[in-house]
């Protein structure tokens, strides 16, 4: 596998723990410029892009694992083309800012894994780590059960999982994925509910959510209510009601230690009566 840093710089101690865990099973090749820093970015755009292109071109690497998210992946999108990603056919594993790259993988028709990266994998419970390794090695995903039913119903479609803020930032660009026919899983961190509402409203008013067959609401960590008392859960329930599609809540996906990995780009079924997301 190739380990790259397409977004922000990372904590060295956390990275070393995650890398040690990866190396118990895989040979991990680190990007030459992995430890560069340019302000809030892990190096200049050119060097981060080159690391990603080299990873895509490496015939011995079956997966590309970012060190962490943060910000910066979207700045690389204009220099990446769908045919290169399609031809490489490699796993991309990550979440948060890496949602910008998941969007590109989805547009190229290549499956990817929304889940922990190098700096966060070591924090997860052993069973989450096992699921992560199993997905990477081609095992079928485990269903998510015991979820909250926000709006009832059943639906099926291909899963797309993303950070809400990052996804909304792609609206109006050539890199926004077509979500029609998808089951959309969303997560975010450190955003007040009114800010989440504003971001969701952007997606709704842009028409980006037309045709979404169901929603799965992941973890919205550190998204506490303001003085008005409105929670993120209440906001999603109110804003998504008009779409009249099934909505599940409290999925264990996002900025939490036990961030369950999920397979993006594959067929899933949502049963909001039973509180389940199942891969077909």
Molecular structure report:
With 280 residues, the chain is an alpha/beta fold. 30% of the residues lie in helices and 22% in strands. The protein has two domains: 2-136, 3-Layer(aba) Sandwich (Rossmann fold); 148-279, 3-Layer(bba) Sandwich (Glucose Oxidase, domain 1). The strands form two sheets. Strands 6-10-9-8-7-12-13 form a seven-stranded mixed β-sheet. Strands 2-1-3-4-5-11 form a six-stranded mixed β-sheet, covered by helices on one side. The relative contact order is 0.15.
What are the key terms here?
seven-stranded mixed sheet; 2 domains; about 280 residues; about 30% helix; single chain; alpha/beta; globular; 9 helices; Glucose Oxidase, domain 1; Rossmann fold; six-stranded mixed sheet
In short:
This protein is an alpha/beta fold and 280 residues long.
Order of strands in the sheet with most strands: 6-10-9-8-7-12-13
| Overall SS class | alpha/beta
| Total count of helical runs of at least 4 residues | 9
- Compute the average pLDDT: 97
Question: Topology as H/E string?
Answer: EHEHEHEHEHHEEHEHEHEEEE
Quick one: biggest sheet? Answer: 7 strands, mixed
Based on the structure given, which CATH architecture of the largest domain is correct? 3-Layer(aba) Sandwich
Query: CATH topology of the largest domain, anyone?
Result: Rossmann fold
For the terminal residues, how far apart are their CA atoms?
A: 28 Å
Unreliable segments of 5+ consecutive residues: none
Query: What is the number of strand segments?
Result: 13
- Approximate strand percentage: 15-25%
The share of residues in helices is 25-40%
- Which descriptor suits the 3D outline? globular
CATH superfamily of the largest domain: Murein tetrapeptidase LD-carboxypeptidase, N-terminal domain
* Rg over C-alpha atoms, rounded to the nearest angstrom: 18 Å
Count of individual domains: 2
What is the CATH level 1 assignment of the largest domain? Alpha Beta
């Amino acid at each position: 596998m190739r380990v790259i840093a397409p977004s922000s710089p990372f904590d060295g101690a956390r990275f070393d723990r995650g890398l040690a865990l990866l190396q118990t099973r895989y040979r991990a090749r680190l990007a030459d410029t992995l430890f560069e820093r340019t302000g809030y970015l892990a190096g200049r755009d050119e060097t981060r892009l080159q690391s990603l292109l080299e990873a895509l071109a490496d015939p011995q690497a079956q997966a590309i694992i970012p060190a962490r998210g943060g910000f910066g992946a979207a700045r690389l999108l204009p220099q990446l083309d769908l045919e290169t990603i399609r031809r490489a056919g490699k796993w991309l594993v990550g979440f948060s800012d890496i949602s910008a790259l998941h969007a590109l993988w989805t547009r190229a028709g290549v499956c990817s894994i929304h889940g922990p990266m190098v700096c966060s994998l070591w924090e997860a419970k052993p069973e989450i780590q096992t699921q992560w390794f199993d997905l990477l090695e081609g095992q079928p995903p485990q269903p998510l059960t015991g979820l909250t039913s926000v709006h009832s119903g059943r639906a099926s479609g291909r899963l797309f999982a993303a950070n809400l803020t990052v996804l909304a930032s792609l609206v109006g660009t050539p890199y926004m994925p077509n979500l029609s026919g998808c089951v959309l899983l969303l997560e975010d961190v450190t955003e007040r509910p009114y800010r989440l509402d504003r971001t969701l409203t952007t997606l709704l008013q842009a028409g980006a959510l037309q045709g979404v067959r169901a929603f799965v609401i992941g973890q919205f960590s550190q998204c506490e209510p303001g003085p008005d008392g409105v929670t993120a859960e209440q906001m999603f329930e109110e804003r998504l009601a008009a779409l009249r599609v099934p909505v599940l809540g409290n999925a264990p996906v996002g900025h939490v230690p036990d961030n369950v990995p999920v397979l993006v780009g594959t067929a899933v079924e949502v049963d909001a009566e039973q509180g389940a997301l199942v891969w077909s």
